[in-house]
Amino acid sequence: MGRAMAVLLMAISLGCCNIVNGAPPTVLTRVMPRRGADSCKPLVIAHRGASGYVPEHTLGAYALAITMGADYVEPDLVMTADGYLIARHDNELGLTTDVAQRPEFAGRFRTQIVDGRQMTGWFTEDFTLAEIKTLRAVERIPNSRPGNARMDGAFDIPTFQEIIDLVKSMEISEGRTIGIYPEIKHGTHFQHLGLGMERSLVDTFHRNGYIGPLAPAYIQSFEVNNLKELKELTDLRLIQLYGGNPANQPFDQFVTGTKLTYAEMATPEGLREIAKYAHAVGPEKNYIIPRKEDNTLGEPTNFVKDAHAAGLEVHPYTFRAENSFLPAEYRSESHSEAAIGDFNGELITFIATGIDGLFVDQPDVPLRVRDICLENKLQ
Q1: What interhelical angle do 225-233 and 198-207 show, nearest 10?
Q2: pLDDT in tens, 171-220
Q3: Could you give the count of Cα atoms lying within 13 Å of 245 in the half-sphere of its Cβ?
Q4: Record's superkingdom (predicted)?
Q5: Which residues on neighbouring strands pair with residue 239, listed in sequence order?
């Protein structure tokens, strides 16, 4: 007897087939749910892609993060002179592209004030997209990631639309939903240039079918007013980021003359105010477990509990495996900047605080550490 016939007869004996009026038998199979971008907790958000392995903000970094299983990929967005959203950590191009080796752009080198700080270099707002596309990506921190630096020049600078296209195509090959989690960089700066990103970002998301609070998308910002503006433009989920120094102000709050600091935003009252316009908060991880003077971890704060009480999810940043980024107790004995420490140990400690997601440069590691996902629990 053929294997297919044996399977069919077994199914009939178990009563899971219908034969009506001589119609061909239909075997009832159990359809497992497709894994969604929010099916697993805590969410693994690939910070600038799998940037611990491939130069950040490249299609290669995003693709690797997706194949590793990341729930979301996170592009930082800035604007070109002709109004295109592109993925770069900053609007200054010198650290992440080969622009310094391009004599045709030597005349674009200049100094300006960005978010209250003097910066010198080449800036995205001085380049058209066509010019940006002639540049090649390079590793931003080669001393910590010499392996990434071997890929300098391998990738170009992607647009936001190209990232969406990559994600949608890989959803087919991966058989799951993959989220996109962009950050608006230097929002006030670009608004003052007439290159505000908020409307363009929302339009791009909506045009590609990302609509409503259940869409696999978040929009993040360190500023406050643009998130409140976005709340009027879209129902996509928003996340309020916190600067590393709690005493600092969001730059838009400094410009408008308020006294609001990140420290005030981290209080129970401040979190309740954020919950009026945002779905989640993204603190630097020291807000959750501060480091002591010897660079070891201290005791957890009430930040996660207070945020949850306000109805907010908590997605801290940034988790990195290299010694130079780890708390002292999780570092390896090597003195190399590129040495990998006990990254699992740090992740387990932070996950135990009840965080709902995390930004990470090596997404494969927390994927092995976190709880099993929804689709596995249903099997």
Answers
A1: 30
A2: 999 999 999 999 999 999 999 999 999 999 999 999 999 999 999 999 99
A3: 5
A4: Eukaryota
A5: 220, 280
Q: What is the mean pLDDT of residues 230-254?
A: 98
Spell out the SS3 assignment of the chain. CCHHHHHHHHHHHCCCEECCCCCCCEECCCCCCCCCCCCCCCEEEEECCCCCCCCCCCHHHHHHHHHHCCCEEECEEEECCCCCEEECCCCECCCCECHHHCHHHHHHCEEEEECCEEEEECEHHHCCHHHHCCCCECCCCCCCCHHHHCCCCCCCCCEHHHHHHHHHHHHHHHCCCCEECCEECCHHHHHHCCCCCHHHHHHHHHHCCCCCCCCCEEEEECCCHHHHHHHHHCCCEEEEECCCCCCCCCHHHHHHCCCCCHHHHCCHHHHHHHCCCCCEEECEHHHCCCECCCCCECCCCCHHHHHHHCCCEECCECECCEHHHCCHHHCCCCCCCCCECCHHHHHHHHHCCCCCEEEECCCHHHHHHCCCCHHHHCC
186: annotated active-site residue = no
**Rounded to whole angstroms, how far apart are CA atoms 109 and 113?**
14
Asked if residue 300 lies in contact with residue 333, where contact means CB atoms within 8 angstroms, the answer is no
Q: Which of 47, 186, 189, 279 is catalytic?
A: 47
Q: Using alpha carbons only, what angle is made at residue 308 by residues 305 and 310, rounded to the nearest 5 degrees?
A: 115
State both tokens at 28.
Answer: 């009832």
Catalytic, out of 89, 186, 189, 279: 89
Residue 89 annotated to the active site? yes
